[in-house]
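Kindly draft a sequence, keeping tokens residue-aligned:
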Amino acid sequence: FQPMPGDEIVVLSEHVTYWDHDGWKDPFSSDRFTARQQGYETILGLGEAYTPQVILNGTEVVNAGGPESAIRQSFEKAAQETTVPLQFSSVALEPDDSALTGKLAVDGSQAKHGGEVWVAVALNRIETDVLAGENGGKKLTNVAVVKDLAKVGKLEKGKRLNVPFTIQLWPGADPGNLRVVAFVQQGAAGHVLGAAMTEQIAGTKTRITPASGN
């Protein structure tokens, strides 16, 4: 989904847990992501948390089920913001497929604020058979599903940062179905100052279409 030529939308899908009580547990849901959504609810003064909900640049809420014109307007406005440049200089798979290692360059020389530097590893695409609940019996296709999220550094206002990182992979991970996203954020649930994404992982031999999971 890249509706604006010349501007890249970097997407992460963080699955929350409050649907898990309906008789089927989302295999990608996490209490950690529920807490992040609740943090935005508090900081942005929202009356409630809901799905599908998009937190755009950490400062605006977009109803993903709303009118397309309103969604596009929000993204076009966000595209005008000045962002902190981030660039992956390398991302590589360990020989035993146990982890991803990489280096990230963050240019905060023109930034008016500092922030925390995070790296997320996400599934590019996954299909899931929903066994019960509101979507029971359906096969859902999800993209950019976050599996791991790690804080790798701290950017100081007006500074540059080069930071190495290592993210352990889970058993059975398919390196050919991963994207790595880095972003700078003010606090645990604050303004996102800049982001970057790569699917170029050195040492990955094949791209395999993921099978459905329960």
Remarks:
- The chain has two helices and nine strands.
- The radius of gyration is 18 Å.
- The longest strand covers residues 139-155.
- Residues 31-43 form the longest helix (13 residues).
